[in-house]
Hints:
With about 80 residues, the protein is mostly helical. The protein contains three helices and no strands. Helix 1 runs antiparallel to helix 2.
Amino acid sequence: MKWLAANARAKHTKAMEAHEEEVEQFDVMMAAAKKALAKAADADDAEKLQSAKTRIAALKDSKPKPPTLKRYTSNDATIEKLGDL
């Protein structure tokens, strides 16, 4: 059981590293979209403004979610908590 938990922690660590890279990429893309929105607002271009808004909305929907750690042990032996495993 300890081996499974250790293996899951190692996989989770690797997944978290990949997730951090995805978040950095997402942040850069979001910053670029906000910059395009500001530029379109300054130019008073309704078409580009709407395009930038839809791009930001699409990016917000695609924000990467952090991976979850698979658990194999529990310190709480109630039925409810054991069902979570």
